[in-house]
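Input chain follows. Return structure tokens only.
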Amino acid sequence: MLWKEIAVPEAFLQSTLFDSQPLTFGGDIRVDDLDGDGEPEWVVFRSTDKGMKPCFIGAFEMDGTVMWQVGEEGDQPARPGSVTLYDFDGDGSDEVLHFWHDPAVDNPIDNMADVSVQLRRGDNGALMRESRPALFAECAGEGPNWVHQRLLVANLSGSSRAQEFVVKLGERLVAFDASLKVIWHYRIQWNEYTKCSAYIPALGDIDGDGRDEITGGYYLVDDDGTVMWAEQLGRNMDSVAIVPWDEGTPRVIASGGGYVLDAAGDALVHLGEDVVPHGQEVRVGDFRPELEGPEMVIRWNGHRNDAMMVGNDGSVLIRFKLNDSPNHTGLEAIFWQGTAAAPMIYNGGTLWNGKGEMVAQFPGLPAEPVGDFRRGWYHGIPLDVLGDDAEEVLLYNPWENVVRLYRAETTDSSATKRFQPTARQYNARLMD
């Protein structure tokens, strides 16, 4: 059911013409607990230089009340975008970590020398720290990977909670500590369209040392920047993850060629390009509880609605057609009935079960998306607002001005507990 519709505050909106028609929009969105009150708050942001460099950020409450704003104007961000929300100091309220464009400097879109890294208080937007890394002057826009920037919160030091973050800037993977200092960077060898590493890297502790490793499908980099392996594997390595696979052991899951890889880069599963000619997206979950281990669902034929379910042994269980959605991206595993039940497959405003059957459609969505279809409309962000272990789904069109929250009709919205942010929000998987 459509549970809540929350208007983006009017003070945060920007107006433009799209196809000669007036359009009012807020920008892209992030969600987390900014003030420690146990409820989610929202951050919208816009960018300059064709959506590459954030220049406006505004935060507001669950009921639409304005909390704070910095900057002005800006265009639609190019998803995924370099803004995230995370509680770095562990005080129970999140900070806002983001890149920021210096309005006094006007560098070309492919030059990062006019960008700084900022950390702000979530409750009032006060600037806590800022850094302008010298390395940014060397990070120029090169190849198809340039536009897909994403700040990923990471545990690189083995602390009790993550204290670091990683960003991919074109062909460079750059790691920062909590003081915003660059601690290492890795140069990715492959940067040619269809033959480059994943647009958005993934991280997880694959070797069990309490620290995160980072992968782009063609490489695995250790917490200290050491390359564990690097090899150009399948084409169209668009989507990757590090998640438990066989008997709970974390593995690299990679869409290009349909790979499951261990910490040494050896393949446990390789479907091959005959089976997966263009692995656009891959997600893992225990979609079929009657079978051993988790499964993966792959959008195997590029930007189309062709999907398959692959068993833990690498066998193709089923092929099925998902519903059409803008740009045919936005797969996610949603714990719609809680973590004890099989997750649902989210795609374009619908839910599917592990047998490839559509089980629900989200009401109240426009028949035709407003604005540029590539701006991630219909991507779902999972979050447990009610604290009951079942996930709700946030849908937001960056070209509109309303936040939509969906929940199962069977959940009890009166039994609200504290919202506990997780990596499903601060490292949410969003991509054009």
